[in-house]
Design goal:
Length: 429
């Protein structure tokens, strides 16, 4: 017997105990007209509160899955259902004036003329970008002019990764490393001195560079993609004051975009809590006025059959089985080699790379083959010097050999979060 039936039975018993007919009728009408309705409304509100708490606790790690890809500019589809450019300026690059480039060189000592994709192994790219080497090129404007350029790490895509990390933290969503090998293979073609014979009024129309023995690695007009979309949305209605008379709840409708996607709200001072309730975003904070919100939609979905990608789309998806959910729910530590292997295989990357074993090493050993994809997370508590190394060993299992150390870097970055007391590195066998 449920609680509602218990209440009704109690009321029926009480009614039967009243001997005066008029009092019995009055009591019955009062119970049915006021008390039962009030009780049922309270029960409904309690169930809604219970569901709200459960929704906040039921965190699905794959709901915030980040996918990354790479596409030639000629194949970029701005209406794509799933992926968009990491940097908006890549979609419609503007022609720059020579005068603007000169001003940037005067202020910063250099200026980026173009961004290129380096298709090669992570160690090879690290050595290439570590060289302060000058390459001869031709700058195309109204005429062609000889220039000298060099290659540098492209930082704007990495800044986007760091901004996304801070968005996750601000919205109270656990961070999971982004599997983004292509973002670490982008390089800027930089000029440090503009020839005087080029007039300020001319615009840059193109650039050709002789990269000599590295020419096969360099690819122009490549655009990194991911499934994070930037939206500008307005609140619906007026802010609702909270019980503490300090905070307000703002409601944003996401009905036009879909409740199946995940959403993050841009950083603003005063925001205390962000949560999604079906097709609405509920923002609680000390912000009084209704305004335009920066909302970031992490789209979910699958590739269409007609989608074309020259390079594989990478993702930080984890297998979602009983063992995975049980471990996440109970926060079980990874203490054995078997548990570590199960954790690594949970990323389902066996078609590219195979985990073999791990080993602890002391002190300075071989030069690291992998890098941290969480370079923006700093450990301010633990001493960095003198840490032992936890080496993860992998072997090649796929055709994309130039991506292997990047995929190993992704896995190693995730394992590093498990074992902050060690310096985690990956090595290919």
């Amino acid at each position: 017997m449920d609680r509602n039936e218990d209440i009704r039975e109690m009321i029926r018993t009480e009614i039967q105990s009243i001997s005066v007919l008029e009092e019995r009728i009055a009591f019955k009408e009062m119970m049915e007209g006021v008390f039962l309705n009030l009780y049922e409304k309270n029960e409904e509100m309690y169930r809604a509160l219970e569901m709200r708490v459960m929704d906040d606790l039921a965190y699905d790690i794959n709901r915030y899955r980040i996918c990354t890809g790479l596409v030639e500019r000629s194949y970029l589809d701005t209406t794509h259902h799933y992926l968009t450019a990491v940097c908006d300026e890549d979609i419609e690059p503007s022609a720059r004036l020579i005068s603007e480039i000169r001003e940037e060189i005067a202020g910063e000592g250099k200026s980026s003329l173009s961004t290129v994709f380096l298709k090669g192994d992570a160690v090879e790219i690290r050595k290439l970008l570590g060289k302060d080497r000058i390459y001869a090129g031709v700058l195309k404007a109204d005429r062609e002019y000889p220039v000298s350029v060099r290659l540098e790490i492209c930082s704007r895509y990495r800044k986007k990764m760091e901004e996304l990390y801070h968005l996750f933290m601000k919205n109270g969503v656990p961070w999971q490393t982004i599997n983004a090998p292509y973002l670490f293979k982008m390089a800027d073609v930089v000029i440090c001195e503009m020839p005087e014979e080029i007039p300020d009024t001319e615009k840059v129309a193109g650039l050709e560079v002789n990269f000599e023995e590295y020419a096969p690695m360099v690819h122009y007009d490549m655009i990194p993609l991911w499934n994070v979309w930037h939206l500008k949305l307005e609140s619906t209605g007026f802010p609702i004051p909270c019980g503490d008379y300090k905070n307000f709840e703002h409601i944003i409708s996401i009905q036009d975009y879909g409740a199946e996607h995940a959403y993050l709200v841009g950083e603003k001072s005063g925001i205390r809590n962000v949560r999604q309730n079906r097709d609405r975003l509920l923002i609680t904070g000390e912000i009084r006025n209704t305004e335009l919100w920066d909302v970031y939609m992490i789209r979910s979905g699958e590739e269409h059959k007609i989608d074309r990608y020259t390079y594989p789309v990478m993702e930080n998806l984890r297998r979602d089985g009983f063992a995975e959910r049980f471990l996440r729910k109970n926060g079980q530590k990874v203490r054995t080699k078997g548990e570590l292997e199960r954790f690594i295989r949970g990323f389902a990357l066996e078609s590219y790379i195979g985990y073999q074993d791990c080993r602890l090493e002391d002190g300075e050993g071989e030069e690291a083959e992998t890098y941290s994809m969480n370079f923006f997370i700093k450990d301010e508590i633990r001493e960095q010097k003198g840490r032992r190394k936890l080496i993860l060993f992998f072997k090649e299992q796929g055709k994309e050999t130039w991506l292997l150390r990047d995929i190993a870097s992704f896995i190693t970055s995730e394992v590093q979060e498990l074992y902050p007391e060690y310096q985690c590195e990956g090595r290919m066998l």
